[in-house]
Amino acid sequence: MSGAPRRTPRSFREATARRRLEGVLDPGSFREILGPAHRVTSPHLAALDLPVSFDDGAVVGQGLLGASPVLAAAEEGGFMGGAVGEVHGAKLTGLLRLAERERPAGVLLLLDSGGVRLQEANAGLVAVSEVMRAVLSARAAGVPVVALVGGGWGCFGGMGIVARSCDAVAMSEEGRLGVTGPDVLEATKGVEELDASDRALVWRTYGGKHRYLLGEADLLVADDLGAFRAAALSLLSARREPGLEELEREHRHLSRRLEDLGGFSEATEVWRAAGVREPARLPGLEPEAFLRSVSAARRGDR
Amino acid sequence: MERLSFEFACPGEPAPPAAPVVVGVVASGNLEVLVEGGGPPGRCRLVVETSARGFGEIWEAVLRDFSGRHPLSGLSVSVNDAGATPAVVSLRLDQAVEEYLRRP
């Protein structure tokens, strides 16, 4: 595995949770906390006679980013869609509480999750809400928390809320962010509301480009570990002062957004209204070309 | 779920005292393999938790082959399986041992 440094992009989306952490943090710096050998697995899945994973789908630990100490977590989407069970959530919460105590340069959350693990019912729901509270607590203690969203499962349900509770979010176009995911939306509101099998529509609606244009993602990056690493480095200093003022500003922003955009039914209409010329070609653009063509149109007033 | 345990004679080199390694993911048709050292000398222990019941004989054959390929004394292998085929299991086991032996 030695030789010249690899120049080819290494996909974030295709990597496992551990590989993502290795690729985003300084090489060789990651030290896992409560790793798989500790075998802290889900008691709920075992009770339901379902397969467990040695790390319950959450990898947490400490490392360096640009030589600064950080804490970092990555969800493994391959295990139950990154769904948050009691142990999985407790590992994220524990890491954020450790951040409050140790004051690292930041916490990175590499989120890849469909939301709560339904099999764990209330224990899962409580776990997700504890993660939300812990994010806000760490931020209140002055530790920036940054979400990186570029996995195949996107970031939905409670974890979508967790991402937006962070100081900043970096996404690839391939990453998706939302609360109610496409399949759930179609199941509850009907195919007329959203056809979950229309992948282009799903990505226009939930994908990184739309989230970036709405100002919900701070950075849009290519699906590449190096690009996510660069994004994490630049966002560590993007701390937003949490508190009542920020909350009120955000509420004003969201009310305005609902007034301005609430009548539209398609992302391309939103982009056109924001001043993007030829919005239909946005989904086909590489990140750099995309960023050039939308720089004036982004609703970045967070 | 079915739990299967195996122990084979492994008279080879002792497994190095490296950090545990996990490879693979518990997803449909896939499995995770955790490799550790420090087991009883001269033996190789393997524990499998699988969602596919009734395949004990096939597991025994696949794992016996594996321990023949890598007769590391004191090796301990733990598997969480979600219905992987024998070929996938063999590849994952080899991958896990290769990564384990590469560890400092």
Please, what is the oligomeric state? heterodimer
Measured as a percent range, the helix fraction of chain B is 25-40%
For this structure, what is the CATH homologous superfamily of the domain at 17-177 and 217-240 in chain A? 2-enoyl-CoA Hydratase, Chain A, domain 1
Contiguous low-pLDDT stretches of chain B (5 residues minimum) are: none
Task: Describe this entry's structure for a reader.
The complex is a heterodimer of chains A (302) and B (104). The radius of gyration of chain A is 19 Å and the shape is globular. The model of chain A has no long low-confidence stretch (mean pLDDT 94). Chain A has a domain at 17-177 and 217-240: 2-enoyl-CoA Hydratase, Chain A, domain 1 (Alpha-Beta Complex). Helices cover 41% and strands 12% of the residues of chain A. By secondary structure, chain A is an alpha/beta fold. Chain A starts with 16 loop residues before the first helix and ends in an 8-residue tail after the last helix. Chain B is an alpha+beta fold and 104 residues long. Chain B has one domain: Ribosomal Protein S5, domain 2 (2-Layer Sandwich). Chain B has helices at 56-69, 86-102, and strands at residues 2-9, 21-24, 31-36, 43-50, 75-81. Chain B has a 5-stranded mixed β-sheet, covered by helices on one side. In chain B, helix 1 packs parallel to helix 2 (86-102). Chains A and B meet through loops of A and strand 3 and strand 5 of B.
Short description:
The complex is a heterodimer of chains A (302) and B (104). Chain A has 302 residues and is an alpha/beta fold. In chain A, 41% of the residues lie in helices and 12% in strands.
Could you list some keywords that capture this structure?
heterodimer, A: 2-enoyl-CoA Hydratase, Chain A, domain 1, seven-stranded mixed sheet, 41% helix, 12% strand, B: 104 residues, alpha+beta, Ribosomal Protein S5, domain 2, 5 strands, 30% helix, 32% strand
